[in-house]
Amino acid sequence: MKDVYITRISKFLPNDPIDNDQMEERLGFIDGKVSKGRRIVLRNNQIKTRYYAIDNDGNITHNNAQLTKEAIELLCDESFTAENIELLSCGTGSPDQILPSHAAMVHGFLKNGNVEINSPSGACCSGMSALKFGYLAIKSGQNTNAVCTGSERASSWMKSDVFKNEIEHLKKLEETPILAFNKDFLRWMLSDGAGAFLLEDQPNGNLPLKIEWMDAYSYAYEIEACMYAGGDKLENGELKPWSEYPSEEWAQKSLFAIKQDVKLLSENILTKAVETLVKVFEKHDDIKPEDITYYLPHISSYYFKDDLYEAMKNSGVEIPWENWFINLSKVGNVGAGSIYIVLEELVNTGKLKKGDKILLSVPESSRFSYSVALLTVC
């Protein structure tokens, strides 16, 4: 088996950062009214700025595949060009269309010759799944390099016009035309952007990061869906997909908006995260929590940070505060791209030194999946 190294990292964040006072104007007011939930959600998540692929006039500037293509091109130079890529593995929770796949669309924009492509589906963990595919391909000797990405273009799913028909339908029914909180919640949580890693079977570059292992766990067998799009949740907890609704109800129910069962999220996201970390440290008993130099948890909100730390401490997997590295407040929650973007920032701090251990931890609330990876600075 080959060793696998992350040798280059890049990110692409579209346009200028958007602060909290600008975001509703950029996404649009629903029924011309200010959201009642916005300030509550923002106060809890403590995100200060985020990025949207939308310009000042409300025009879309990039789709998801274009964001990803931009991040990949930032990996390249004269010594490694896009034509040198052997495998392209692209994860996202917000593809531009159902078919073709996200990676196929990215490849179409790159125009870099014949390569193998892979498009893991899902939400936040799809970026880690993309990374694991590239990692295993190189480790097994199938490829000598791979470009892996995580990206989101969630803003187009959160614009006010997505909900226009639903609000008009509620008015006809003489119901109060207020957007349900499970839909409004994520409008103030998500951000656009893309990150990319170059993986190679040799420790090239300055301070390459060796991928020691990657593990993933799903709890979908015991918990119902929590974050979803392209369907609606029934009273029994099951999801009814868009394809089983009459087409006129797709807009009336905002079926393609991203929705979050906030109660289910708060009940499970931390307990399962810590349960996963306990499993990881039991499996890899040659590494202890105190050996981790930098802990990079992908958290959707600073609301969870203190409770996560306490739960880790109570379960014997405490990693000291000073070893945590998070950039949520500056870039927002970029879903599948977040772990790429935060690692890029850590690398560019110049603080890393040989032998440092970096633990990547990514939860996915769609139906509670978790992915963890250990890196060593070489």
TrEMBL record:
- So what EC number does this one have? 2.3.1.41
Q: What top-level branch of life does the organism fall under?
A: Bacteria
In what residue span(s) does the Beta-ketoacyl-[acyl-carrier-protein] synthase III C-terminal domain sit? 286-361
Instruction: Tell me the keywords, alphabetical order.
Output: Acyltransferase, Transferase
The molecular function terms of the Gene Ontology recorded here are:
3-oxoacyl-[acyl-carrier-protein] synthase activity
The question of whether Transferase is a record keyword is answered with: yes
Has keyword Transmembrane helix?
A: no
Top enzyme class of this protein? Answer: transferase
Gene Ontology biological-process annotations:
secondary metabolite biosynthetic process
Q: Which InterPro entries match?
A: ACP_syn_III_C, Ketoacyl_synth_N, Thiolase-like
Q: Where is the Beta-ketoacyl synthase-like N-terminal domain?
A: 119-201
Signal peptide positions on this chain = none
- Fetch the Pfam families from UniProt: ACP_syn_III_C, ketoacyl-synt
| PANTHER family referenced in this protein's UniProt entry, alphabetically | 3-OXOACYL-[ACYL-CARRIER-PROTEIN] SYNTHASE 3, BETA-KETOACYL-[ACYL-CARRIER-PROTEIN] SYNTHASE III
| Protein name per the record | 3-oxoacyl-ACP synthase
> Taxonomic lineage per UniProt?
Bacteria, Pseudomonadati, Bacteroidota, Flavobacteriia, Flavobacteriales
